[in-house]
Write a structure and sequence with these properties.
Elements: H1 3-38, H2 50-53, H3 57-70
């Protein structure tokens, strides 16, 4: 490897560690909050914005399944 590519690789890894990881963690956190509030009825809580979010359910059902699997819930209690 030439020195220039080593320097590029060093800076790329620095940027990944310093900036990319915190952004991914923040994105994951915001996604979890959004999905929780959209599907709050599944947790037995009232959703005051249910009328406004009902149109989003068909588009987000697959995302919801991926999300609850990431939480460690393999099967839904409705199966």
């Amino acid at each position: 490897m030439d020195p220039l590519s080593q320097v590029r690789e060093y800076f790329k890894s620095f940027i990944d560690i310093q900036f990319k990881k915190p952004v991914e963690v923040s994105r994951s956190y915001l996604r979890d909050i959004l999905l929780f509030f959209l599907f709050v009825e599944y947790f037995g809580l009232d959703n005051p914005l249910g009328v406004y979010t009902i149109d989003l359910y068909p588009h987000l059902m697959e995302e919801f399944h991926i999300w609850h699997r990431s939480l460690g819930i393999e099967k839904t209690p409705f199966d």
